[in-house]
Write a structure and sequence with these properties.
Length: 182
């Protein structure tokens, strides 16, 4: 085998590039972390993450924490917002109100309301409300409300109604199982 200086130089450059780019050799995941709310999660392969600091095409209102968009279907997304729920008693009250009254919104149709558990070990208690919104582009929404560090937070998941089951299984559920609460 003949070795040339040129081959060694290219090899050295290649090794330096791999060493400088974090995680390439180790397969490390890229995580979003918000210490103020004690929440983190991996940015999944099929996800684009927008924040108030990096809003992309979105306008963030006060109380919006992030928007995670399915990069293959941009109208399928997960938002995290602060909510008025302050403690576990409020969470129980919210559930009872959603069961009894639902939402006063045109085209609203309740699918389900109940308790669920989210997080990497599925230990974070939450209230889940799934409903359809009828209109020109029917949508299915999944609200997941919980308390973290004394603050009420709500995940809002949205998808076209005809794709909700598939997106719930492939995008929303993996996301909910990947969250770490600190």
């Amino acid at each position: 085998m003949i070795r040339t200086k040129k081959g060694w130089i290219w090899g050295l450059i290649f090794i330096c590039v791999l060493a400088l780019v974090p995680g390439i050799l180790r397969g490390e995941e890229v995580r979003y972390a918000n210490p103020a709310y004690g929440i983190s999660f991996p940015i999944l392969e099929d996800m684009i993450l927008y924040t108030p600091e990096h809003p992309g095409p979105f306008t963030f209102a006060e109380g919006n924490i992030f928007i995670a968009v399915n990069k293959w279907k941009p109208n399928e997304l997960i938002m995290l917002n602060r909510s008025a729920v302050a403690d576990e008693v409020d969470l129980d009250y919210l559930k009872s109100q959603m069961e009894e009254q639902g939402l006063p919104q045109p085209g609203y149709h309740k699918v389900s309301v109940g308790y669920t558990a989210i997080g990497e070990h599925q230990r974070k208690r939450a209230v889940e409300h799934i409903f359809n919104l009828q209109g020109q582009a029917p949508r299915t929404m999944r609200y997941v409300c919980f308390i973290q560090k004394g603050q009420g937070l709500t995940f809002v998941c949205t998808s076209n109604t005809d794709r909700f089951r598939e997106i719930n299984k492939e995008f929303f559920e993996p996301f909910f199982r990947s969250i770490k609460f600190e």
